[in-house]
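Hi W., the DLL complex you wanted:
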Amino acid sequence: MIWNEAKECMSRDEMRNLQSARLVKMVSRVYHNVEFYRKKMQALGIEPGDIKGIEDLNKLPFTTKQDLRDNYPFGLFAVPKSEVVRIHASSGTTGKATVVGYTRKDIAIWQECVARVLAMAGISKEDRMQISYGYGLFTGGMGLHYGAENLGATVIPMSTGNTKKQITMMEDFECTAIACTPSYLLHIIDALEEAGKLDKIKLKTAVLGAEPWTEEMRNRIETKLNITAHDIYGLSEVMGPGVAADCKYHAGMHIYEDHFLPEVLNPDTLEPCKEGELGELVFTTLTKEALPLFRYRTKDLTSITYEKCQCGRTLARISRFKGRTDDMLVIRGVNVFPSQIEAALMEMGETSPHYLMIVDRVNNLDNLEVWVEVDEAFFSDEIRKLEDLTKKIAHTLQQALGLAVKVKLVEPKTIERSEGKAKRVIDKRNLI
Ligand code: DLL
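Structure:
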């Protein structure tokens, strides 16, 4: 189902006109209301009148997470505080939290974007949807919650944790849809298998995101649960979940470009990438009132295409994320992303999807060790089988990464499970 056909299927020219009109208005509002941007624009020698349409986008300054931190908590807000009806925040691993605010209209647009995502995933008012993202300052729980309610689906606000209870509710309420991180759904699948309940549940659709995952992981989840799994993207600074998501063709995620103007730039030169070329995703918000952002550098690496999708939508599509500029590991000069390991392991199909990368420095040399969980049976079988599989995985990873990797097979449940975003890397080099 297409929730807002007028916006999702307009011609590229119509979209550019809409974006230009919204950008011009937004720039003027921000210039007059946010001192930070006014000063930045003045330093660049530009005035609101210089921005006549999206062709002038590259005249605007960039924004980084650090800018939000430097203006903690409300320094970048463009409306009086009394107009702000909700605050969310993302903690991150270092420094102060990033604080985001929403006016009533911002919340309404957010709800519409998430409803569009869910409709695109085939969810309707007939569905009962378990929301198993964290509720609270994180945008996942409440973002999905209000979007699903807006669509008319029945919402079960589970939040994360207490997996046993999640399963009971899923079974008793006959939930047909779930929203959570892909890693948490894997954990739920393990628990369902253990309880012998895989065939008892009525799930049809999962809407998964908030962390990187691969096509191979999608296949595994879809096969195990006999469902369709959709990818949903978003980030708190720009809104939360619902900035982009994929349709039934899974041919990249459609960006709601009528609200979020995307660019994909070379992260070193900040020059635009060609269609299909990998670069950093950058967003300019077009309609946000409380926290409008110019050219926000997401650090997420993807490529973009403007080709019309088979589903009829003309919205730009981004490819699955390759990683983030800041989770790319450089090991002995080789660039490594956790997603490469996941894809290689899933393709082999002989291990579980649970893995952990441990990077260490010994005698000034970086070492990558990958722990992979395998079936218990391997540990009771002859030792030779375990050794053979270890060698096979090490060879596969070496081929995939171009780097020698030490592999350690571990028993099920050795690697810590996550109810929210999974932690895949321990980089001990930072600790030395
Ligand atoms: O993770 C918002 C969200 C909640 C998205 C629920 C989807 C579902 P933050 O905590 O600010 O917001 O983290 C944003 O998470 O820049 C990406 O690096 C990563 N991310 C989010 N969705 C995806 C996805 C929420 N589908 C950061 N695939 C982003 C890959 C994702 N990475």
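The chain has a mean pLDDT of 95.

W.
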